């Protein structure tokens, strides 16, 4: 597991508590003898609900599981279900006092189907409902009770249409809408509510010209407000969507140039875009908090990492951690204490859940110690630091101890954007000061690390 420095600009009037690493707790759930496939995590207050799929050794049968962790990482309960020969649990949603588990069912030689199960916070099943010839990938809890589902309907292939539906709290199916955008296939990727009362679905289309990422805006009553096909230069694949401020929403997608995060307004127009990149980072999911911040989960050099952006698209923090094994991140949620929770798998043998401490904020670049937008966003372990650089040029980096001794110095040419730099002797415990001299001036940072 990695260690990370807790950073504050040296001249900023801020108090930052030092911590040994970024994680509050790491849990692995291993049922034994089966292959674990990560699904989704969602939060109800400070509790976390994790779902996924259990496969047998030959892959002909599969069950679904749900696990509840308390805010302190205690395992409250674990449940396993088998609805058909081959089940998968791609999504879970947390309502005010109930949980909705989404299950994709399949029997060899028959069409796929969808089941929605309502669970109590104690893991008891209140009801299950089935929809034949459908593949739902997304579920969102309705604050008024019940849930919305979003997926595909029709045989596989070609998955003729997108499907948007709603169940009330008693399990009655009260809404059914279909939307056919192409003739060769459409697959849902994400669904989120918006603060203006609507919902946005993200989907991936298989068009004659190749893959196309698409967005659909729905009213809560099911009417389609608009659809948007995204240019392949912007995003070839939709990964996830999340609620934003003022009716806006966040979109995460992948393109040939990497992974892109975008904020979009209620009309589907782009407000801003940023590239989510670090050395070897592979983005998987995103979530947002009540303040409008957005978090992106990724795997970076074998560890789970969470990037935090503010509502203006500025990267304000990076936390990382996980397990000694290679981790696979599949889903992200943010708890009531603003501590990100990531779920995934460790070597396909255990369900991995990582709870991070709430990320600390980075001092504003307007303070005297951080001229012209140069920011230190975090450290990535092994003495490496992540710098946000406003302009290309030669930068001198010097590391000092608390008593003024110079520990290391180097000169590097840095490009605009995110840059990883080496900090020799940067892993030692205690207070260190990093001084960065660049074209726009000198920046000073205080790094605090406790063992």
How many alpha or pi helices? 0
CATH topology of the largest domain: Methylamine Dehydrogenase, Chain H
Outline: globular
Fourth-tier CATH superfamily name of the largest domain: YVTN repeat-like/Quinoprotein amine dehydrogenase
Low-confidence segments = 1-20, 360-371
Give, in spatial order, the strands making up the sheet with the most strands: 1-36-35-32-33
Main CATH class of the largest domain: Mainly Beta
Terminus-to-terminus distance: 13 Å
State the secondary-structure class: mainly beta
Mind telling me the C-alpha Rg? 23 Å
Domain module tally: 2
Note the main sheet: 5 strands, antiparallel
Portion in helices: under 10%
| Strand residues, percent | over 45%
* CATH architecture assignment of the largest domain: 7 Propeller
Number of strands: 36
- The pLDDT mean sits at 78
Overview of this structure, please?
It contains no helices and 36 strands. By secondary structure, it is mainly β. The two termini are 13 Å apart. Helix content is 0%, strand content 61%. It has two domains: 1-21 and 359-451, Sandwich (Immunoglobulin-like); 23-356, Methylamine Dehydrogenase, Chain H. Strand 24 and strand 25 form a beta hairpin. A five-stranded antiparallel β-sheet has the order 1-36-35-32-33, with no helix packed on it. Strands 2-29-28-27 form a four-stranded antiparallel β-sheet, with no helix packed on it. It has a four-stranded antiparallel β-sheet with strand order 3-4-5-6, with no helix packed on it. Residues 1-20 and 360-371 have low confidence and may be disordered. It is globular, with a radius of gyration of 23 Å.
């Amino acid at each position: 597991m990695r260690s990370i420095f807790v950073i504050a600009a040296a001249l900023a009037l801020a108090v930052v508590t030092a911590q040994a690493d970024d994680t509050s707790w790491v849990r692995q759930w291993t049922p034994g003898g089966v292959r674990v496939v990560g699904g989704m995590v969602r939060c109800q207050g400070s509790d976390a609900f994790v779902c996924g799929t259990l496969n047998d050794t030959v892959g002909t049968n599969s069950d679904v599981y749900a696990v509840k962790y308390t805010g302190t990482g205690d395992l409250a309960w674990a449940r396993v279900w088998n609805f058909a020969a081959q089940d998968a649990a791609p999504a879970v949603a947390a309502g005010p006092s109930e949980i909705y588990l989404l299950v994709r069912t399949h029997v060899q030689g028959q069409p796929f189907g969808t089941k929605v199960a309502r669970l109590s916070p104690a893991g008891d099943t209140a009801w299950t409902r089935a929809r034949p010839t459908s593949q739902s990938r997304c579920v969102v809890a309705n604050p008024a009770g019940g849930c919305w589902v979003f997926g595909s309907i029709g045989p596989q292939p070609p998955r003729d249409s997108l499907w948007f539906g709603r169940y009330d709290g008693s399990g009655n199916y009260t809404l059914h809408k279909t939307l056919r955008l192409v003739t060769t296939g459409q697959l849902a990727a994400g669904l989120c509510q918006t603060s203006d009362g609507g919902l946005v679905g993200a989907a991936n289309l298989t068009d004659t010209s190749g893959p196309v990422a698409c967005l659909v805006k729905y009213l809560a009553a099911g009417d389609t407000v608009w659809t948007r096909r995204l240019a392949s230069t912007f995003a070839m694949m939709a990964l996830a969507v999340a609620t934003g401020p003022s009716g806006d929403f966040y979109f995460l997608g992948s393109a040939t140039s990497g992974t892109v995060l975008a904020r979009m307004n209620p009309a589907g127009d782009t407000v801003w875009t940023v590239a989510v990149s670090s050395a070897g980072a592979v983005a998987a999911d995103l979530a947002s908090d009540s303040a409008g911040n957005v978090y992106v989960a990724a795997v970076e050099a074998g560890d789970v990492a969470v990037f935090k952006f503010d509502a203006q698209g500025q990267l304000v923090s990076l936390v990382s951690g996980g397990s000694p094994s290679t981790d696979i991140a599949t889903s992200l949620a943010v708890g009531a204490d603003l501590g990100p929770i990531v779920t995934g798998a460790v070597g396909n043998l255990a369900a991995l859940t990582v709870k991070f401490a709430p990320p600390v904020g980075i001092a504003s670049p307007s303070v005297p110690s951080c001229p012209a937008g140069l920011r230190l966003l975090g450290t990535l372990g092994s003495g490496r630091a992540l710098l946000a650089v406003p302009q290309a040029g030669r930068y001198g980096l010097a590391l000092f101890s608390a008593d003024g001794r110079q520990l290391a110095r180097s000169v590097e040419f840095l490009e605009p954007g995110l840059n990883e730099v080496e900090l020799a002797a940067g892993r030692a415990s205690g207070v260190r000061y990093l001084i960065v001299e660049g074209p726009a001036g000198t920046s000073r940072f205080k790094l605090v690390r406790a063992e």
